[in-house]
Amino acid sequence: MKRILFSGLGILFIGGTMLLYGCASTQSVAMEKTGVQLWGENCSRCHNAPPPAAFGDAEWEAITHHMRVRANLTEEEVQKIKEFLMASNG
Amino acid sequence: MRLYTFCIFVWGLLLGGTTVLQAQRLDPTPGQSIFTVRGYGHSGLEFRQMEGENRWKNSFVGGSFNPIFLWRQSDRLIFEAELEFGFEENRLEVGLEYADVAYTLNRYLIARFGEFLLPFGKFTSNFHPAWINRLSTAPLGFGHHDPVGPATDFGFELRGATPVGVGKFTYALYVVNGPALQEDGRLVYGLIEDNNTNKAVGGRISWLPLSDLSLEVGLSAQYGKVGASESAYEHITARLYAVDLTFRRNLIPLNSMLDIRGQYNRAEVDRTSYPGPTPGEMISFDNTSQAYYIQGSLRPAYVENPLLKNLEFVSRYSKLMLPEEAPWGEERSEVALGINYWIDWRTVVKFSYLTMDIAEGHEEAEQALPKRFNEGEEDEEAEVLKQAFMIHIAIGF
After folding, report:
1. What residues of B are in contact with residue A21 (Cβ under 8 Å)?
2. Model pTM?
3. Beta-carbon separation of B102 and A22 below 8 A
4. What is the pLDDT of residues A63-79, one digit of tens each?
5. How many CB atoms lie within 10 A of CB B302?
6. Which of residues 34-73 of A touch B (CB under 8 A)?
């Protein structure tokens, strides 16, 4: 029981440390990438990347929000992907 | 267990509290309400040969239709629910796969409530839809009927992602009802009502170390009591673990895309005694179940030939190991090969062949096994699948 407890706390500690490290120093990684780049990299990790023309703006709004939750996208990633999709689906 | 629950809330409060000011940057007002239906469906023709038989049976299968309802209320709030329409024992079955609400607390944390897909590895949470799964079946130990590890559960979750170095780090922590221990020693997952007052705690962390996010390595764990309250198993606990790996890369010399996926699940239940096959007999065994799969696929997407560029070649090896000394113990492995043709980005025709191998010494278990030919089919004839050929079409929408 103790071993499991300490393991759990260890994971939380390491996770929290990495989280804070990430928050503090590396927010610019996704910012340097373009929306089309992030669209290709993130969507294709699970499935084929849908073309922008597949959906309208309102649907992209809901789908990208859903994918932020489901696929663990960061706020910067989902914002850039959404802007790219909405700008390219006309 | 109470300490675990306490730790989770402290963790949530700390992370939530430290970033609450940043939340003000997000639009706090309800925005445009959007309702949309997405989802997927699949159907096909299957040829199967059972153990001990020479002839092949074939049948069209209804497959399933899975609409996913999305209701986005604001920049912060979204509701998701998935229904599944399928056939089981010649009857229409309608099931609620999950239904949950996700609320964005800040740029690093999203809270989810309800019944949700658990972040226990990646197959069930991300790869199981028919148009995403490269083969027509789930790997051994990852389907509806032979799970080693949970798929969905009822509870509360905090999840998120943050850039780390040139890559990304994702995290999820949850409290759910947890699985229930049956009298034969098996775990049942995703019960609507908890069988005890104890809650299971789990989570997943993953690291994507490469700048193109092509590699992801994840670790998952869940812990909790599984015995029913006021039963002989009240204090029995289960520890569940999963390790998953995903790698996707363009192979320029081959003008192809390579996709590798794998996952290992392990479920450990405290040793105890269970009623044996004869009245009054009690048996005790090491109640550890394991399942894993490794899958590779190659699609020559960058060649000129219009037919070849839409083909995808897939191979998968999966193995299921249930406790050897249990009456329901078994060890079986499966090799699956497939050629897919992508009609467009979301529509695929899958030609799959799979062959099953059951370890010797499990004849009794074989008779009790589902034929596990297609997800959604239960065993009535105690037949054991030897090999199968399937043609399926799957569409995501």
Report:
1. 164
2. 0.86
3. no
4. 999 999 999 999 999 99
5. 13
6. 41-42, 44-51, 54, 58-59, 61-63, 65-66, 68-73
